[in-house]
Amino acid sequence: MAALRIKNVIIHEFIKEAQKPIDRNNLFNFRDDVLDPENTIVLGLVSTITGLYGKKGNSAYYGVFKEDETRRGPVPDNFATYFAYTDEDTQEFIDFTVLITRQIAEEAEKESWSSGGFLIYADYVSDDNRYFIVTMVKNKPGMRISRMLEPEELEQLDLSKIHQAARISFLRYEQFQNSPEVEKSDLNYLSFISKTPDKNAASYFIAALGCDKGIPSSRATTSLPFEINKFFESQEDLQHSSLRFRNEVIEYLGEKVSSKSPAKLSDIENMAIAHMTYIEEDRREELINLLMEKLNSDEVQIPSEFNVNRKAYEKMKSVSFKTVGFGYTFEKGMLGINRNAEVFYNQRDKSLTFTNLPESARLDIIKVLKDEKIID
C-alpha cells in the first residue's frame, strides 16, 4: 500500500432509520474538531478505507460533478472554494464536511429506505496525489466508533465492504478545469461506490454530492480488452491465453451491443476464472483480485458496469482474409493509409504492411528466415 499522509480527518454522524421519518431534533452528531492524523488508530482507519476503496467487492463508478447548477446542489461549488485554499485550513475542512453532511441528510429525507451512519471524511495524500474522500459506514455489530466520534480499536471495525463512498482527485480535478471543452468528455476526477442493493436508497448519497455518474463509454469499451490483454501478457502463467481471452471479451462486448445491455466487470471476472482453472486456487484468487483491481483502478477507470459504445466496438472487430499459402486477421481500428498506421495499406502499390510487429512475432519470422537460410 502506498504511503499515506493525512492532512485532515473527521467523523460526523447522520441519524436516520430506514422507513422512518427524520427526527429533526436528533438528526446530527457533529464533531467540532479534527481527529489527530498521527494517531495510530486514526491512521489505520483511513488507511483501511483507502486501501479497500475500488478493490474487489467495492468496485467504483467514475464521473464528474453535474454541470446543471439547478440540479447539482451546493457541494461542487463549495469544493471549488475548498480546492482553491493552498494552505491546510482546518476550519475550512470542517465547514465543508458539515455542509456535505447536511446535504446528505436533505437528500436522504426524500428516500424512505435510506438510513444514516457514520460519515468519515479525510483529506489525504497518497503517491504524491491529493484526495478528498467521504465514506459512510453503518453502525452495526462490531462497529466501534465512540460517542465522541473517535475510532476505537481497529480490529473491531468491519470495513470489508464500504457502504457508500465518494472520492475526488485534486490532480484530475485541476486537469479537468484547465482542459478545453472538447477534451473534458474523456476526463474524470470523481469516483464513488455503493453497496446498497436498493439503488433508490443509495441514490441520495450520489445526489447530495452532485455527482454525474458515468465514464465515456467509448473509452471504457476500448480500454477493457486492451487492459485485459496487457494484464495477461504481464503474468507468465496467463500469457498463452492473452489473445484468446481478449477476443472473447470483444465478442462479449458485441453481444452487449446487440442486447442493448450493460457490460459488467462481474461478467469479466467469471470469464477470466474460466481461463485459470488449471492454476492453483490461491494463485488463481490472487490473479483475479489483481485483474479486477487494475481494471477498476483510478488509473484505468473501467466502472463496475457501462454501456458498450457501438462505434468503439466496431473498430475492434476483425478484418480477416485467408487463401492458399497465407492469411491475416487484424482489428479495423489498426488499418490506415499512412505509414504511421499499425496496418498500412499503400493505395499506389496495392500492398499491405504490418508496421509494429510484436517482439515474439518478429523473432518467429527471423527464425523461419534463418531455418530457410534466407538470412544468416
UniProtKB/TrEMBL annotation:
Q: Which domain of life is it from?
A: Bacteria
Q: Does the keyword Cytoplasm apply?
A: yes
Q: Which GO terms describe its molecular function?
A: double-stranded DNA binding; single-stranded RNA binding
Principal cellular location given in the protein's record: cytoplasm
Pfam families referenced in this protein's UniProt entry, alphabetically: NA37
Asked whether the keyword Cytoplasm is assigned, the reply is: yes
Report keywords, A-Z: Cytoplasm
Query: What are the GO cellular component annotations?
Result: bacterial nucleoid
Location in the cell reads:
Cytoplasm, Nucleoid
In the record, the note on similarity to other proteins reads: Belongs to the YejK family.
Task: Give the matching PANTHER family.
Answer: NUCLEOID-ASSOCIATED PROTEIN YEJK, PTHR38772
- What is this protein's record name? Nucleoid-associated protein
Protein's organism: Providencia huaxiensis
